[in-house]
């Protein structure tokens, strides 16, 4: 039978199928962080169940961590307690932790790929919906709740119904200034915020084939924003080149053997999908969102749709926008470049290449937060820190930061923030904050102009 | 886990689509390390204004609505995987959430906490909202065994789907952990087999 990439990986991980019920799916790699794991550890303790495979778990601290003075004790007492519990739980259960200050510390979906933990063909889970990011390597990766974190601790398995198959094809050549973030915002704006619910999405076509691993991660990261549990892209030479030589990647003969297996991980010609959509790369322009879910996106020069769904009026009232309005020249006081969507080295190179020799507008508060310590080090190595500094941007230490504002990095009430993160939900970046999702390039251009601007005109 | 069989109660309507888990429980309340106390922060920023005063026109603050059934707009529970959303709804007192669509992760989290997600057709959802608007004391019966939700005044009903395995778990109060732990031998065998399977795929 002809199989999709998704089927091949899924079927190779089914321990048992329960008649009329879910599959017992084996999980190769479990990633954990401080926010969604403590209750799972407690549950295990109460039930006196040991962690079954501690060597298949890696922990990091990222969600609630400060992005300044990470060498000092964390000021927020609740955050400090949560971080301490993570350390204790990892120690008691022999789990590797890359805590605050460790050279490998970073956002879970940035550090695992850069350490070579993420590999093609693996099944990976984490108590975080953006686990879909790792699908960029041709892995089945998805977010889980805390009860499921407990299940994986106890058995290295999950009881899950096999999702349906969805394929999104984008072919053609992207225009200048159009980035992977714009591609995924475009797709979500066309399909809607729940179009992918119940599906796993394969991204196919030359646009994704020509993308770097960083770009593929940005795309797969936002699969959940159209409701899909995960997204994935077939591994190819770009993938192998990225993985090879990384800290926990297989080495030598083992790498060659695994690579031979990875090369079998592609959708067979003629394999069937339950749903399929195709788009032309030429139709995609730099995108921004205007509402309170990631599906509410328009091209940067576009106008807010007049005819919206039932809840659009509520969203527009929250955002302070009107139907039919263009957002060009809208003054913006905050920009944020960071989050598991856009905090990899390529994102900062992209922003820096635009910013170089320019200054941020006076009204703008520009926050730059690398995804990991390794990315932060690379920013310095490449001298990008100087570019940001000279332009008046604030470069912080790594973490999830203003994407979900669990730490002090919050956008004030009523203020707009052009943000490279993944969610523009009400209050996501702080109570009353108004988020406009965009690419690192758009965020950089907004910071320089002090308002939303059609920067594509100025690109060489 | 608490068992669920049938429930007869009044309902609280929340006619908003795409309610994400950030609204159900904002991120600033995720710093707890146990499961207690999330109920008081359920829908915090819709329920209370900046000064902490209840927002009068929000459904949970309106005396005319009460009950352990929440009826919400399409695509409920999208966004973040935080199970704290299910804990908050449960702690507040909800036992059933009705919508025309649920986000995957939320649905799983709800089922793992004995909170029943009942997915109905968009048309039936509209009828449910209308029935509450007409009479806020309208009672609904949710029968898990027969997978049926009924408006008691009119007798109108609709069947809903649920994974048979999950249904058994809810009715008996079982959770997945004991089941998976009972399968550890099979899981160990699978682990031994995994390398061979990979090698076979290359042939």
From TrEMBL, chain A:
One of its GO terms (biological process) is L-leucine biosynthetic process. Keywords: 4Fe-4S, Amino-acid biosynthesis, Branched-chain amino acid biosynthesis, Iron, Iron-sulfur, Isomerase, Leucine biosynthesis, Lyase, Metal-binding. Its cofactor is [4Fe-4S] cluster. Its EC number is 4.2.1.33. [4Fe-4S] cluster binds at residues 340, 400, 403. It comes from the Bacteria. PROSITE patterns: ACONITASE_2. Pathway: Amino-acid biosynthesis; L-leucine biosynthesis; L-leucine from 3-methyl-2-oxobutanoate: step 2/4. Pfam families: Aconitase (PF00330). HAMAP family: LeuC_type1. Catalyzes the isomerization between 2-isopropylmalate and 3-isopropylmalate, via the formation of 2-isopropylmaleate. Belongs to the aconitase/IPM isomerase family. LeuC type 1 subfamily. This is 3-isopropylmalate dehydratase large subunit. It comes from Zunongwangia atlantica 22II14-10F7. The gene is leuC.
From TrEMBL, chain B:
GO terms for molecular function: 3-isopropylmalate dehydratase activity. It is an enzyme of class 4 (lyase). GO terms for biological process: L-leucine biosynthetic process. InterPro entries: 3-IsopropMal_deHydase_ssu (IPR004431), Aconitase/3IPM_dehydase_swvl (IPR015928), AconitaseA/IPMdHydase_ssu_swvl (IPR000573), IPMI_Swivel (IPR033940), LeuD (IPR050075). It catalyses: (2R,3S)-3-isopropylmalate = (2S)-2-isopropylmalate. The keyword Lyase applies. Catalyzes the isomerization between 2-isopropylmalate and 3-isopropylmalate, via the formation of 2-isopropylmaleate. Belongs to the LeuD family. LeuD type 1 subfamily. This is 3-isopropylmalate dehydratase small subunit. The gene is leuD.
């Amino acid at each position: 039978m002809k199989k999709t990439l998704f089927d091949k990986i899924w079927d190779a991980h089914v321990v048992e199928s329960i008649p009329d019920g879910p599959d017992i799916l084996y999980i190769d790699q479990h990633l954990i962080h401080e926010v969604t794991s403590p209750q799972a550890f407690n549950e295990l303790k109460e039930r006196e169940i040991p962690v079954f495979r501690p060597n298949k778990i890696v922990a990091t601290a990222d969600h609630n961590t400060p992005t300044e003075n990470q060498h000092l004790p964390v000021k927020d007492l609740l955050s400090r307690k949560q971080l301490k519990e993570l350390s204790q739980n990892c120690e008691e259960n022999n789990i590797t932790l890359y805590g605050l200050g460790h050279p490998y510390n970073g956002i879970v979906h940035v550090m695992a790929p850069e350490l070579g933990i993420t590999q093609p063909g693996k099944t990976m889970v984490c108590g975080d919906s953006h686990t879909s990011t790792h699908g960029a390597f041709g892995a089945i990766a998805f977010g889980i709740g805390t009860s499921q974190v407990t299940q994986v601790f106890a058995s290295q398995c999950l009881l899950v119904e096999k999702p349906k198959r969805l394929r999104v094809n984008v072919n053609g050549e992207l225009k200048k200034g159009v980035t992977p973030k714009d591609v995924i915002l475009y797709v979500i704006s066309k399909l809607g915020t729940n179009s992918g619910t119940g599906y796993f999405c394969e991204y196919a076509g030359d646009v994704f084939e020509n993308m770097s691993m960083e770009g593929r991660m940005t795309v797969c990261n936002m699969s959940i924003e159209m409701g899909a549990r995960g997204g994935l892209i077939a591994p190819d030479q770009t993938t192998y080149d990225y993985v090879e030589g990384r800290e926990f990647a297989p080495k030598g003969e083992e790498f060659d053997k695994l690579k031979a297996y990875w090369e079998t991980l592609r959708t067979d010609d003629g394999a069937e999908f339950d749903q399929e959509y195709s788009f032309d790369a030429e139709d995609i322009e730099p995108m921004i969102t205007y509402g309170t879910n990631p599906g509410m996106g328009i091209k940067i020069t576009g106008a807010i749709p007049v005819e919206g769904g039932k809840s659009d009026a509520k969203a527009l009232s929250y955002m302070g926008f009107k139907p039919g309005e263009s957002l060009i020249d809208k003054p913006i006081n905050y920009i944020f470049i960071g989050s598991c969507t856009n905090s990899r080295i390529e994102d900062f190179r992209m922003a820096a290449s635009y910013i170089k020799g320019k200054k941020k507008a006076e009204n703008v508060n520009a926050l730059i937060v690398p995804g990991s310590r390794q990315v932060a080090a690379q920013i310095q190595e490449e001298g990008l820190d100087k570019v940001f500094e000279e332009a008046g941007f604030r470069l912080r230490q790594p973490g999830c930061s203003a994407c979900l504002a669990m730490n002090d990095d919050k956008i004030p009430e009523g203020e707009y923030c052009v943000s490279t993160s993944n969610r523009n939900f009400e209050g996501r970046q702080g109570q009353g904050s108004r988020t406009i999702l965009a690419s690192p390039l758009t965020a950089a251009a907004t910071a320089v102009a002090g308002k939303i601007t059609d920067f594509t005109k100025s690109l060489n | 886990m608490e068992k669920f069989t049938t429930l007869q109660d009044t309902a609280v309507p929340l006619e908003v689509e795409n309610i994400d888990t950030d609204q159900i429980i904002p991120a600033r309340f995720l710093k707890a390390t146990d499961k207690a106390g999330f109920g008081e922060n359920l829908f915090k920023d819709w329920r209370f204004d900046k000064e902490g005063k209840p927002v009068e026109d929000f459904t949970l603050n309106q005396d005319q609505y009460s009950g352990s059934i929440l009826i919400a707009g399409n695509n409920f529970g999208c966004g973040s995987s935080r199970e704290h959303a299910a804990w908050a709804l449960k702690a507040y007192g909800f036992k059933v959430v009705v919508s025309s669509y649920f986000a995957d992760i939320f649905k799983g989290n709800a089922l793992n906490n004995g909170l029943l997600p009942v997915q109905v057709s968009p048309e039936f959802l509209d009828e449910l909202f209308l029935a509450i608007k007409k009479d806020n004391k309208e009672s609904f019966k949710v029968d898990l065994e027969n997978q049926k939700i009924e408006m008691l005044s009119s007798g109108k009903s609709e069947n809903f789907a649920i994974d048979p395995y999950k249904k058994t778990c809810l009715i008996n109060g079982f959770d997945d952990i004991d089941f998976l732990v009972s399968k550890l031998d099979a899981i160990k065998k699978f682990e031994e087999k995994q390398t061979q399977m990979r090698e076979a795929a290359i042939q």
